[in-house]
Amino acid sequence: MELNKQSDWVARSLRSVWHPCTQMQHHETVPLIPVSRGKGAWLYDHEGRRYLDAISSWWVNLFGHANPRINAALKDQLDTLEHAMLAGFTHEPVIELSEKLSALTGHVLGHSFYASDGASAVEIALKMSFHSWRNNGHADKQEFVCLKGSYHGETIGALAVTDVALFKDAYGPLLRASQTVMSPDARLAAEGETAQDVARRAAADVERLFIERGDKIAAIIIEPLVQCATGMAMHDPLYLQLVRALCDQHNVHLILDEIAVGCGRTGTFFACEQAGVWPDFLCLSKGISGGYLPLSLVMTRDEIYQAFYSSDVTRGFLHSHSYTGNPLACRAALATLQIFEQDDVLNTNKVKAARLTQALQPLAQHEQVRNFRQRGMIWAFDAIDAPKDFSRRFFATATEHELLMRPIGSTVYMMPPYILSDEEIDGLAANTLAVFNKVMAG
Ligand SMILES: *Cc1c(COP(=O)(O)O)cnc(C)c1O
């Protein structure tokens, strides 16, 4: 490890790397942190400081950095097959992964189509939905429905079903119009209303739209249980049951975007299991490769697959991507799924989650905090009367307390890897409280 190089790396990065989701000028005041290595839940900079990765490096890392089991699988795969094209050829990692994922849905979603990033998985689901309707003689089903506050990625097609004002305002003229329905966000409960009441109200909004123009609508896309990017807006599973029934009744596809909430994040492997429903298309990415390599996929039903099965090329699904089904990424995913089995992760996480929820009680009861909420391995709360630039200040202050955290607006959240020790859980809670108090004091 080289010492005293930190400032050099920062200067060189700012000169040549255009960082994502960043107004670059902010780095005149907000620190840019060059990471030299990672181990477990920790990232280390070039000066030996460490940061607990409380947001799993943008929600991707499940079992820590430099995980020995995933590393070993990748090293073996690297010496076997790094990549081969998936048109005309196939290979063991992609076959095994598709079979394992199919089994996890009880073989309801038995066909997996691969890409590399989450936004592309969303694009694929949208295209597949439209094209399958057309192949079945419903070419006028071309519209998509999304939820208020939804986030499904930032390519132009995915952005069209993303309801984030900042992006919509900037790129609106490039986007295809979509219909937006009420969010089932439990925080919208009126006096005396329960989360289930909000779910019913939000489903009624979907029903109104389906009655009005269901024959024009191809699909509704939903991030089940937790709308993450809008600020960890959580809803009752009842909403998914009601929308599934409406989709069946009005012949509309249900696309569930489990890119962030899948892979055990909400407590079950797939979030939709908590509602007891399966979608027509399920998008996975982020955690599926353990946070190692870009990998995304769309799982779908046999009826959809059959709609494309024909001797006619134009009836086949038309989407190609150079690195589709990359063997290294699939092998990382297989190693990740194996850890779920070997370590009984979903049950172990329940114990970890209960401990962190307990440790966060001083924040849950803090007089400047409202809507403390948790589902599975996601925690969030909203700051009351947060000071200006709350999010950026919180990030900077957190780095001084060995934490990597990036609030969304005035919502502070935690989405840690599933490997925190008791000591790390308690430290995370204590440091978050200290950072929050400092930032709120101005
Ligand atoms: C991150 C995310 C995406 C986009 O994934 P990328 O890999 O960043 O393109 C889509 N949907 C949801 C719910 C996400 O959290």
Automatic annotation (TrEMBL):
GO terms for cellular component: cytoplasm. It holds the Pfam family Aminotran_3. Pathway: Cofactor biosynthesis; biotin biosynthesis; 7,8-diaminononanoate from 8-amino-7-oxononanoate (SAM route): step 1/1. InterPro entries: Aminotrans_3, Aminotrans_3_PPA_site, BioA, PyrdxlP-dep_Trfase, PyrdxlP-dep_Trfase_major, PyrdxlP-dep_Trfase_small. Keywords: Aminotransferase, Biotin biosynthesis, Cytoplasm, Pyridoxal phosphate, S-adenosyl-L-methionine, Transferase. Gene3D superfamilies: Aspartate Aminotransferase, domain 1, Type I PLP-dependent aspartate aminotransferase-like (Major domain). The modification N6-(pyridoxal phosphate)lysine is found at K286. The record marks C21 as: Participates in the substrate recognition with KAPA and in a stacking interaction with the adenine ring of SAM. Pyridoxal 5'-phosphate binds at G118, A119, D257, H321, S322. It catalyses: (8S)-8-amino-7-oxononanoate + S-adenosyl-L-methionine = S-adenosyl-4-methylsulfanyl-2-oxobutanoate + (7R,8S)-7,8-diammoniononanoate. Homodimer. Belongs to the class-III pyridoxal-phosphate-dependent aminotransferase family. BioA subfamily. Catalyzes the transfer of the alpha-amino group from S-adenosyl-L-methionine (SAM) to 7-keto-8-aminopelargonic acid (KAPA) to form 7,8-diaminopelargonic acid (DAPA). It is the only aminotransferase known to utilize SAM as an amino donor. This is Adenosylmethionine-8-amino-7-oxononanoate aminotransferase. It comes from Duganella rivi. The gene is bioA.
